[in-house]
């Protein structure tokens, strides 16, 4: 099971010790979410898992929610790097965010399972909003879909469908690779918005 965020390039922008400590704290949070659920995790739990003191934690983050936001941002940067690499390889894919998300969910399956089944959790809501934003950017940038359909309707439809499929795929033991799951999503999404 993968429990560490791919952080290529981050160490060049901040002090190595700071990057290492933040990485330990973020990785601790990632490891704890599937075990306890985000709401039940305390700063003490995170510090114990990361093997750092509370004062060190508070040197880097104001609270658990600030760590959560930084962790999500680190994951999104990781996914963004995969997305850029995938878009260079595939060129004209309908929704470029989906394959890197399926790959990331596959690599971090227990984490994504915990995130996707905890509806109503703030971390789940933040993930849902990030997906909506990615869909919105791609629909607007590529001018995809039926012009008679309100753009926000299409955004909600695609984001909701993607999250439902992702949650189902993560929760089941389907023998679908990330690429196969993405291919099915791409075909259904394209039909759904008339692309």
Automatic annotation (TrEMBL):
InterPro entries: Homeodomain-like_sf (IPR009057), HTH-type_Tx_Regulator (IPR050624), HTH_TetR (IPR001647), TetR_C_Firmicutes (IPR039532). The chain crosses the membrane at residues 153-171. Residues 19-79 form the HTH tetR-type domain. Residues 42-61 bind DNA. PROSITE patterns: HTH_TETR_2. This is TetR/AcrR family transcriptional regulator. It comes from Mesorhizobium caraganae. Keywords: DNA-binding, Membrane, Transmembrane, Transmembrane helix. SUPFAM superfamilies: Homeodomain-like (SSF46689).
């Amino acid at each position: 099971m993968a429990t560490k965020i791919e952080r290529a390039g981050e160490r060049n922008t901040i002090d190595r010790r700071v990057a290492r400590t933040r990485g330990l704290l973020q990785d601790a949070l990632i490891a704890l979410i599937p075990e306890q659920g985000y709401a039940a995790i305390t700063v003490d739990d995170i510090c114990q898992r990361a093997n750092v003191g509370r004062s060190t934690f508070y040197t880097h983050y104001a609270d658990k929610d600030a760590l959560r936001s930084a962790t999500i941002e680190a994951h999104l940067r990781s996914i963004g790097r995969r997305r850029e690499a995938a878009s260079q390889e595939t060129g004209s894919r309908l929704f470029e965010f989906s394959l890197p998300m399926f790959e990331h969910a596959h690599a971090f399956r227990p984490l994504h399972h915990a995130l996707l089944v905890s509806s109503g959790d703030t971390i789940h809501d933040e993930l849902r909003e990030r997906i909506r934003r990615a869909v919105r950017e791609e629909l607007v940038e590529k001018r995809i879909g039926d012009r008679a359909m309100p753009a926000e309707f299409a955004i909600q439809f695609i984001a909701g469908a993607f999250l439902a499929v992702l949650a189902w795929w993560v929760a089941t033991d389907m023998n679908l690779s990330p690429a196969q799951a993405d291919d099915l999503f791409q075909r259904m999404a394209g039909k759904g918005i008339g692309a």
